[in-house]
Structures are given as structure tokens and as C-alpha cells.
Amino acid sequence: MQNRITQLFQIEYPIVQAGMVWASGWRLASAVSNAGGLGLIGSGSMYPEVLREHIQKCKQATEKPFGVNVPMLYPDIDKIMDIIVEMGVKIVFTSAGNPKTWTSHLKEKGIIVVHVVSSLKFALKAQEAGVDAIVAEGFEAGGHNGRDETTTLVLIPAVKERINIPLLAAGGIASGKAMLAAMVLGADGVQVGSRFVASLEASSHELFKQEVLKAQEGDTVLTLKELAPVRLLKNKFYNDIQKAYADDYSTEQLRALLGRGRAKKGMFEGNLEEGELEIGQVSALINAIKPAATIVEEMMGEFFEAKKGIGAGRFLP
Q1: Can you tell me the distance from the alpha carbon of 17 to that of 38, in angstroms, rounded to the nearest whole number?
Q2: In order of start, what are the domains of the chain with their CATH numbers?
Q3: How far apart are CA 43 and CA 28, in angstroms?
């Protein structure tokens, strides 16, 4: 399958695995790349030297293209970027910051730059900054999210209409049918997060993976907009946030409640009560932990089957 995304990244299928904190280490990234998609190492949960180790191991595990996701508001960003350049990483996805800050520097080094946005306004700013592609992520997505709560179904056509660079859809996509729907709306490919959390190779804790499988409709909520909006599974920590709102906590009090390492505690260490359990709404549709290669294979199989079904009129009234 060839289109603007597969050509840009030199991959077989237009499926990108999101660079999720505490889930996207070298094992997951290399597995997705070996399966024909684009794997991303999530640097947001890594010290610089840990990232170096993951890049080295990913290079040993795959000869296919892979990239690194960099949340730009995280500390040690200069060191992270230096290691990416030094290690010869060819693809970088940036998020949570101004794309103008690093895009020119990375492109001067021959690196493909993709920026993640949650609104049309920021998509236009990213295109102006010179990025090679954009990920437009709807409100359904897990982890840190947009304040405007724009859904993927609305965001993708709005962004497509105004940009001329390749577009990836994210948020609520865990199946081939959802992938086809996003591409009908104008996306050139998809970025998939939550589905790959429930994979054998994800570095997230097994207890967290099992919570993802248990999730039902309505079990995730976007909260903490005063700090950085994040979609979480409901648990004791979420209930503590709700009580804090009821008690009219200030922004500083909310920041103190969140503390440090809350996501690590939940997703990596498996503390299901006190940890932050970041996952998307689509977790309600995930019911099995599978190898990453199987996930890619099943998504593409369903994509082609659904596409064929539309052509045959099977989904039409």
C-alpha cells in the first residue's frame, strides 16, 4: 500500500505506533516497524542515557525505519535532541510545545519532523514551522490531550481542508474500520496508541494492561485541564481529583496532588490505586493482549475487507 505517509517514512503500511510514556520502549517500536508500520520510542519517560540505550537496542532489533517521540515540555530536551542527532535517528515526532523551537534544527540534520496537534490552529502553526507531516489527535485519545475536546471525526476534515502536507489521524483508532473511516475523512494514515498498550511488547505493567482490557464505555475521563489535560481510567487517584475539585482546590493545590511520577507509578509500576492510568476511550473496544505484529496484521486485514465491503455496497442502506 503506497501513499504519502508510506512514502515519507519508507514503510509498508500507514500505521504509526504512538510514542506513549511508559509503554513505548524499543521492544514495541521495533516490533511495529518489523510488522510494516512505523514504531516510535517514547522518550517522555526516559532520561537521556536511557533513550540512547533504547535507540541502540531498536537498531539491533530492526533494520526498518523507526522514530522517537519527544514531548518538548519535558526536562533535558537539549540532551534528548543531541542524542537523537548523534545516534542517527531519521524520524522525530514532537508534541506538547512550539514546533518552531526544534523543527529547523532537526531538518538541517536530515531528520523528518512530525508534530502532534489537537486543533486546526496548531496544525496551521506546525505547517508554518516547516514540519513534514502532522498528527491531528482527537479528544478520544488517551494521555495528554487538547483542551477544546474536538473529536477525531470533526478534527480530521477540518485540518485536511487547510493543510497541504501529509496528515495522520489519532484518537479512537484501534481497528481497520476506524483506520478506513479516518482516511475517508482525509487522513493519509493513522497513529495508534491505546491498542498498542495492550500488546505483548509494550513496556507498561501487566496489571495496567489488564485494567485496559476491563475498561468499559465511560470508564475514562479527560481531567486536570488547569495543568495539562489528560485522559485517565477512573480509580482512587481520579476520585481524589474529583474531591479536590469539589473542595475548590487551586491550581497549585492540584499540582501538589498530582505530584511527581504519578504516571510511572500507575502505568509502569502497576499501582492501580494511586497511579495515573492514561488510556483512550477506545480501551472499551480492546479485549485481548496480542503481539504488535498481530495487531498490525489484523488492522490491515480489516481495513482492506472494509474497503472492499464499501465498494460492494455492503455497508450502505
Answers
A1: 6
A2: 4-203+283-311 (3.20.20.70)
A3: 13
